[in-house]
Amino acid sequence: MNLLSLPWAELCVLLPFVGVAVVGLVRDPAIAGRWTLGISAVVFGGSIMPWVALESGISSGPYFAVDGLTAPLLPLIALLHLLTVLATARVKRNRMSFGGHLAGEGLWLGAFAAAPSAGWLLVLFLALGTLPPLIELWQRGRPIRVYALHMGTFALLLTTGWVATEAGATTFGAVLLSLAVLVRSGTATVHLWVPDLFQHASFGTALLFVAPLAGVYAALRLLIPIAPDWVLEGIGLASLATAVYAAGLAAVQDDARRFFAYLVLSHTSLVMVGLELHTAISLTGALCLWASVAVSLAGLGIILRAVEARHGRLALAGYRGLYDESPSLAVGFLLMGLGSVGFPATFGFVSAELLVDGAITADPAVAVGIVAAAALNGIAVVRAYLALFTGARHPSPLPFGITIRERIAVLAFAAIILGCGIFPQPFVSSCHSSAESLLELRARR
Amino acid sequence: MPELDYAFLDDHLTLATLGAIVVAAPALLTAVLGVFTLIDRPLSERLTAKAVSLATGTGLLAAVGVFVLMLVGDTRHVVVELGHWVHIESSAPEPHYHFAVKFVFDRLSVPFAALSLALCGIIGAFSNRYLHRERGYNRFFTLYAVFVTGMVTASLAGTIETLFLGWELVGLSSALLVGFFHDRPAPVRNALRVWIVYRVSDAALLLAAVVLHHMTGEGDLDQLTGYHEEANGTSWPFGQCILGEGQVLAVGGLLVVAAAGKSALVPFSGWLPRAMEGPTPSSAVFYGALSVHLGAFLLLRAGPVLDASPVLAGTVLVLGLVTAAFAALTGRAQTDVKSALSFASLTQVGLIVAEIGLGWRYVPLVHLLGHACLRTLQFLRAPSAIRDHHGFENALGNRLPRADALGGGWLYRYALERGYWDALLDRFVAGPLIRALCWCSRLDERCTAILAGSPRSTEGGETS
């Protein structure tokens, strides 16, 4: 038995929960923070191993397994959690729930590592994954009704849809699953929970809950293999409308969190549009865009969170003049923001090109909608940048510059965005083979 | 066994190497300045100046080298393919996808790229002194490097995707440099306005790129315009569009919108005087000389598309003439030298576009090159010209006579308000759109409050 034969996928899921128990024993927030950081780093290292094992042709277990699609996603999820905890400001560590953070990570990894044959496990993890934000909102005495209503509906539709599908009522099940996906992706008119969550939960929790785009994953795993064309077309249409609508709203928000929430909604919907076109090119574009959006928005969110930790809630109505405090945060903000809208030399550029190219094959009107959404998102990002980082300077005696931990996080995100933007071929090839597998699966239905 | 022509191989290899250097030099400059900016350790002014002169000098020398070799070898169309950036082999019946990184050196691209590098090199040297010890010195040169890379990439692009890549880099760097003096609100507001117009232009170009890709299976500009390496007779400016009538109108129409946005043609003219909020060197090279001509360059590149459609050619002609007339009139009522120069620049751009609409190719190219050089000189001279003017007035002890060509009537007000174009766009396009979006945003908040069970404000949420 060699190292690669170990059940790495299972270990990746288990380790964060062990971490929850360990961190629960520690009273000092500083020490708990260090433990959480260490455990997250170990989980990140371990999450690469299932990918290596897959490449080496070693088979996985019956419950947790990775394939070409999920193998790169596990390290991505683990990295997002690691960098989020790394970049948490010292003043916020006292209030951060490290146990909740690790539990959330475990649930995410469980969902992404669930074997395709163990659909119930995926449904279970996706449903349970809605709990950490709910618990945090409840513990902090924040309003929970909007979030609970939407996520309760999601869990109910997901479970009944999956049960119906397993029972042979495929079309009915697909309709329920598609409704679940629409709720989880925040498609208009069931999108209100996203801005509400960002208004009331801590930024880190809200960010980690939305950045991996769980609705997209649910659609890929549960819906695309079985759904009739008209269901996918319906989702595509609703997603396209949401992408443009949310991009427009992101461009006029006066609150940084609401701006970010609508930006997430627009990007999630853009990825959904690509999925529902079900051509190899559009699906490849959607998968690439998914990864690029997850990384870019997570990076952007972490920078916003860092600025918020220094200045409190951020309004976009005036000009705050924060550039000179920390040029790195300003440059990082612009890079991540433009990366998410597909600016040249970033990860999103080729993804957006592929998506629009795939869309125009299916329907030119869809391509026009995607381009309009991307243009509006670009305007929203630059407007937010100008509102936060330009304007009259207000020199402060306090050191508000970027910290070493934040710098590491920003540079890691920047390296991924630019690295994959300049050398996109390996990732595009991987996404393309996943897209073809999905389409084969769909063709066999 | 036939003998191989190794001389041709060597020539082509030299041309390809020099061509790659033209593109790589500014890209490397961007990478170096960008990385040091990102890690918050900007290079010293001395090192930055050296890097800038080295990159622009090397790029220019390589461009001149390509030009000389093309003249010597009587080659009019050199293609440098750097391979596929992205390539997807699909199983039938799915179409293949590839994003080729391809640069074309011909009688249009070489002069324009050389002009870009020469003017940028001059402006780099000028700015090094002009911005000495300025707080935004490093920011300026990082954006400047992005701009040069974008200009060179767009000038030499052999595929529409590569052109789009350069186009976007030029747009972002231009918009951010308009807001260079970001302590004041006016430059920032103008930067956002410029960016919005550029996004419209970018969206049109992206759609054109994708439509072309979809119609021809690739975004190759040679495919679109019928230029071929082998036959000198079909290199720029001669070519034949391969698209059908409807396709020409679709792609050509999008290209015209893209060009109109980038070159500030009517109705997008409002951004050009706003762009003068930036530092004088960037105003000179970006909005007076290079960036403002990029739209005209695009139309020159897509010449065969215009030739294939009299409707499109007529539209371009009218657009150019209207812009020229509007800018000539408006420029006479401007009260500051940079705005007056920007409208003078726009007048010439309008004329260049009209010349393109008439089906001429060399005349607009020569007009463009000459105008860019003259306008750069005028912009750079403007601050000292004002000082000289004041010096004359002081020496004379009186005001110098001023031309008052428009009188004080409605024509003057029309010119002073810049044709009311911005006001019209604000009132009939931007205003209703923003009001509708704000209404939707408020609706969202009200619905959330109803779902939450109590009317509540969005203020005072969580802050960690």
Unreliably modeled segments of chain A? none
Strand content of chain B: under 5%
Give the averaged pLDDT of chain A, no decimals.
92
Q: Give the number of domains of chain A.
A: 2
Number of strands of chain B: 2
In DSSP terms, counting alpha (H) and pi (I) runs of 4 or more, how many helices of chain A?
20
Residues in helices of chain A, as a percent range? over 70%
What is the radius of gyration of chain A computed over CA atoms, rounded to a whole number of angstroms? 21 Å
Structural class of chain A: mainly alpha
Task: Offer a few descriptive terms.
heterodimer, A: 445 residues, mainly alpha, 2 domains, 20 helices, 0% strand, globular, B: 464 residues, two-stranded antiparallel sheet, 2 strands
Give the helix/strand layout.
The complex is a heterodimer of chains A (445) and B (464).
Chain A: H1 8-24, H2 29-55, H3 73-86, H4 90-93, H5 98-113, H6 119-128, H7 131-139, H8 145-166, H9 170-185, H10 193-200, H11 203-210, H12 214-223, H13 229-250, H14 256-276, H15 280-311, H16 327-340, H17 347-362, H18 364-389, H19 404-422, H20 425-443
Helix pairs in contact in A: 1-2, 1-5, 2-3, 2-5, 3-5, 3-15, 5-6, 6-8, 6-12, 8-9, 8-10, 9-12, 9-13, 10-14, 11-15, 12-14, 13-14, 13-18, 14-15, 14-18, 15-16, 15-17, 15-19, 15-20, 16-18, 16-19, 17-18, 17-19
Chain B: H1 6-38, H2 45-72, E1 77-88, E2 97-106, H3 109-130, H4 137-156, H5 160-178, H6 185-216, H7 221-225, H8 245-262, H9 271-274, H10 280-290, H11 294-301, H12 303-307, H13 310-331, H14 337-357, H15 362-396, H16 410-416, H17 421-452
Antiparallel strand pairs in B: 1-2
Helix pairs in contact in B: 1-2, 1-4, 2-3, 2-4, 3-4, 3-10, 3-15, 4-5, 5-6, 6-8, 8-11, 8-13, 10-14, 10-15, 13-14, 13-16, 14-15
